[in-house]
Structures are given as C-alpha cells and as structure tokens.
Amino acid sequence: MKKLTALLKPLEKLITEHGSAAIQTKHIALLKEQLTLAEKKIESFETENQNLKRIIKRQETEITDLRLKIDNCQKINKQIKQKISQKLPPKPRRSGWIWGH
Question: What whole-number distance in Å separates Cα of residue 47 and Cα of residue 55?
Fold first, then answer.
C-alpha cells in the first residue's frame, strides 16, 4: 500500500500542476477578454466625451451671443425710455393736497 501511495504521489502532483496551469490559462484568457471589453468602453467614453465637449463649446458660444443681444436690447430699451420721457409733459408735483377734494 505504501508503494502504491508513493507511486501515486508524483502522478497526483502532476495532475494538480496541470490543473492549475489549465485554470491559470483560462483565467488569463478571461482577463484578456475583459481587458478588450474595457478598452472598447474607454474608447466609447472618450468619443462621447469629445462630443459632449463640442456641445458645451457651442452652448457657451450661444450663451455669449445671447448675453450680447440682451445687452443691446437693454441699451435700446433705455434709449426708448429716454425718448418717451422727453416727449411726455412733466409729472405734476404732489403737495399735501388730496386730489379731487
């Protein structure tokens, strides 16, 4: 029985080592597959990021243009108010009197 155990020990060791190597090969293949998927996701995210940066740039430009238009409208509004106030008769001054009595 001891001889049989002694003969089986190296065979058992060989099977264990081969099994470990096979498992390790499978793990490496799985890791490579996951790495490939991760690289594709990163590429997709980088593309999306560039698109979003372009959108932000366009919107910033639009905001700047709108602010300039608002400033121009406010200037025009002020000028119109000044012209209207110049054409209106002066407002009567109120004294301590109650109107209509």
Answer: 13
